[in-house]
Amino acid sequence: MRITVVGAGYVGLTTAVCFAHLGHEVLLVEKIPLKVDMLRRGEVPIYEPGMEEMLRENLKAGRLGVTSSLEEGIQFSDVIFICVGTPQSEDGSADLSQVEEVARETAKLMTSYKLLVEKSTVPVNTHKLIKRTVERYLKKKDVPYDVASNPEFLREGSAIRDFLYPDRIVIGVESERARKIFEELYAGFNCPIIYTDPATAELIKHASNSFLAMKISYINMVADLCEKVGADIKLVADGMGFDKRIGREFLNAGLGWGGSCFPKDVRAFIKMAEDNGVDFGLLREVEKINRRRIERFMEKVRSSLWSLKGKKLAVWGLSFKPNTDDIREAVSTKLVPLLLKEGARLVLYDPKAMENFRRVFPEGDDLKYAPDPYTAVEGASALLILTEWEEFQHVDLLRVKELMELPIVVDGRNIYEPSVMKQLGFEYHCMGRGV
Ligand code: UGA
After folding, report:
1. Which sequence positions are flagged as catalytic?
2. Is residue 268 within 6 Å of ligand 1 at its C-beta?
3. Would you tell me which CATH number, out of the four given (1.10.1670.10, 3.40.50.2300, 3.40.50.720, 3.30.43.10), belongs to the domain 2-196?
4. Mutate to test the pocket of ligand 1, among 13, 51, 154 (most ligand atoms within 8 A of CB)
5. Is 156 in the pocket of ligand 1 (CB under 6 A)?
6. ipTM (interface predicted TM)
7. In the chain, where are the structural domains located?
8. 4 in helix, strand or coil?
9. Locate the UDP-glucose/GDP-mannose dehydrogenase C-terminal domain: which residues (predicted)?
């Protein structure tokens, strides 16, 4: 099948590359010329495991093309996946101007049937706005079209696997013609495929992300309680997680959720509910709990070091989660300024995100970047862990201890066993493991 994908962000790039991998002919439309050039050369502007290899393979096979012309994209195929950004507006709602632009341009240019598919996360009933826009700009041209919602559930860091082997596929369609196209497109997928109306599909996406954020905030509150009563949050999560109705995933306590999706989507969902006369106070609390994680962590740093002034601290992990170089709404972006404000001298290390971080936080007298985790801890009064990169699980901890001035570790992601750390001679502080 021929497919057009508009927007080469995480979702668009993964959609384009994966559909091409599955044998479809794909044209990816991207506005930013620099990005187009990079992609054509087979270079991926973000770090995502496996993406570059797959991009190159499909460019070479001629199944994937990249263009900056939306017009070309619209003429290329009947199926147009809208994967453009939906950033946050000042009032917390999603800014849908890029979605509107694709709908408008498609309507102006189309001369035959088009299926417009929302893949970006959008507020419920956005499909209606897309339809209204298409109607307006068609200017009574008699060309058939459909609008559908097919939300994407992939995670950064495991985007390709999540796309190719999803837990489910959700498709909100209104016509038999559109449904047939999706049936063909997803024929090879071995997972439940749920057909709904578009509004339901749109809501499933927002409700899922907010639920996952709620799960994390919930376990973080339980973690606080564990510390007070001397219980172990990892075991509590295991014990809860075996219940199939609960599930163990997304019950990892720590510094809370960041990234380009959860913070924006939870806010947009609250706003959307409010606009429709529903008070989603539960989610406001979920957000509040998440914001407090930073302070909880700072309390641990302060209580283990007393004063931070002039102390050298090593920080491991800057990305909002492992296996990505993405630092959007990462805990590190909030903690680093707080630590600097209290007078700490920081040496930062991250396997992939240092370049992005350095752009926002340039090196200075009190802020240095280390080429590896060991250099970062040299002479440090404490090591702070903000992201659970696998690399940190395999470091030589005895060497780390010897390099440090004081063997204090404040681990915001619970990557080590407290008993092992104690045996190695560390003073180890983690999240919710009071035993
Ligand atoms: C999230 C969803 O998981 C995807 O299903 C969705 O498609 C995506 O948003 C999106 O809407 O585009 P992502 O933001 O890439 O994916 O990353 P997650 O793996 O969900 O992690 C989000 C945050 O939660 C990270 O900061 C992570 O450290 C934190 N987290 C996750 C926890 O603190 N504890 C956990 O148990 C799990």
Report:
1. 261
2. no
3. 3.40.50.720
4. 154
5. yes
6. 0.99
7. 2-196, 198-435
8. strand
9. 314-418
